[in-house]
Amino acid sequence: MDHQTTHTILTLENLSIGYTSKKGNAVIASDIDIELSKGQLVGLIGINGAGKSTLLRTLSGLQNPLSGNCILDQSPIHTMAPELVSRKLSVVLTGQAISKNLSVLELVSLGRQPYTNWLGTLTETDIQTITDVLTATDTSHLKEKKCYELSDGQLQRVLIARAMAQDTASMILDEPMTHLDLHHKASILKLLTKIAHEQQKLVLFSTHDIELAIAHCDQLIVLQNGKATINTPKQLIQDGVFDTLFPSDNVTFDSKSGRFLIS
Amino acid sequence: MKTNQSYTIPLIVLAIGLVCCFFANISLGSVAIPFSDVFSSLVGGEVTKPSWEFIIQEYRLPKALMAMITGSGLAIAGLLMQTLFRNPLAGPFVLGISSGASLGVALFILGGTALGISSTLSFGKWGLILAAATGSFLVFLMVLGVASRVRDTMALLIIGLMVGSLTSAVVSVLSYFSKAEELQQYIFWSFGSLGDVSWQSIQILLYCFMAGLILTVASIKPLNALLLGDTYAKTLGVKHTKSRIIIIIATSILAGSITAFAGPIAFIGLAVPHLIRQVISTSNHRILIPAVLLGGAILMLICDTIAQVPLSEYTLPINAVTALVGAPVVIWLLVRKKKLLF
User: Fold this and answer.
1) What distance in Å separates the CA atoms of residue A176 and residue A164, rounded to the nearest whole number?
2) Choices 3.20.20.100, 3.40.50.2000, 3.40.50.300, 3.40.50.2300: CATH for A1-88+169-263
3) C-alpha angle with apex B185: B179 to B189, nearest 5 degrees?
4) Distances (CA, A) of A86 to A17, A110, B220, B232, B277
5) H-run or E-run covering A179
6) Looking at this predicted complex, what is its ipTM?
7) Does A204 touch chain B (CB under 8 A)?
8) Which of A4, B25, B178, B289 has minimal Cβ neighbours within 10 Å of its Cβ?
9) How near does any CA of chain B get to the CA of A185, in Å?
10) Do B1 and A122 touch (CB under 8 A)?
11) Which CATH superfamily is domain B2-337 in?
């Protein structure tokens, strides 16, 4: 990807993330300077507790940064009106208590809320978008089904369809491949690649499947020891970032195959 | 959405059902009045006996209207709470609104002893209404204060339950020290009552009902977004705190005013949204709200018809009937479908 500088859409400037409490700030990661562009599939990796979810929540405007800025399309995201953010950035989360009584069509239609009137009436454009995203995610045949009838893999695709219906330039996903078997992981990863490359969107997702991320992402953000590094997977391997990713000697990284081995 | 079309028929069926239940409710009672006379009285025509005219116009019609407002209002309040808290067991009273009303009434009736006066003799029925309204309003203000401070919606639910426990404890203490006839009066209030209401009361209640309904309709979009949970709702552009407070205000106006006039009527608010979801399989509030309005009115009219035990002199407590009629229906529906659609 060589149009990195021309299509910058999400910029993190000197960003510190974490939580505020009465006792003071609990900093999880600081001095984060990253520029992300349209048309890229970016993976976010780091061990448990490294701050992947906190970073994604901050980037989505769900949580305020401790300091620094997260700039979405030229404005700091935490100062933007929620309805404005919802037209520029969509989010796919795991473990949310969504109503399983919703039909797939109803769920995906909710993605159009940023554009509909006060009653949520769908226009021709909205219906066209919904039809398109159902086709793109290969879920058209499921549209009359209720969410409780879906498998985990199907539900994940439908949730991604809902985010696509929001028609935003950026999409952020929190561990979209967790709890899925390899077949479904591959299908989600292919879908995300397609969204990033064919629809020219920024797709940023966190994952524990580091080997898959190394093989498929355009760029990887590695969160480690309160710092964030971004680069292409190839460069990160050369720099030896993965050799020190896990703290103990239980796991070693084989740079030739791009795989982790249990020693 | 194209699927909106397919919900028109169930809504029409519910509307027809409501009209039938309305006429049945007015026709049946301790005094047998022929249906032709009931109908002509309602449309302003001639009635065979003047006493029948009086019974219909001054007793049965206000009571039927009261039943409809109560049923619809509580059912809507229940739906709002179930969606806001994402909890199938939530009802209109989870915020402690009925506890507040009970406390107000208990202080009013039972607290009189402490002051050495009989408050109900001095102030009558309006005193009771005022006490209930004040009680629920104060609890509502408290909940609203907490809601703007506590971010976690679940914490709000638990606080509502705790307020309920606190007030019932105070009521117990008051009951212990009060006279038997006062206690009886309090218990009769807690049975709930739809009858014995003036047209003036219905007018006031109707204003409150409309206010609550307008806020509800204005919240349709945030309510639908909340079906995905708080976080998703925010990422869809919902102003979370503002929407939550509007929903709480709507619930409080509906449940508070109804409890003030009709007493704490249990079950309707919890059950009607579930019954409707079993009949009309959607979670879209654009469909659910009108359906729940109609369903609440129908169920309450049926309960009231049963409560007045047609052709006998007895009237059962409405609060007992709502539970006796509704609970088995919900259990049966769930056992049959084996799934709590929510």
Assistant:
1) 14
2) 3.40.50.300
3) 145
4) 21, 12, 18, 10, 29
5) none
6) 0.91
7) no
8) A4
9) 23
10) yes
11) ABC transporter involved in vitamin B12 uptake, BtuC (1.10.3470.10)
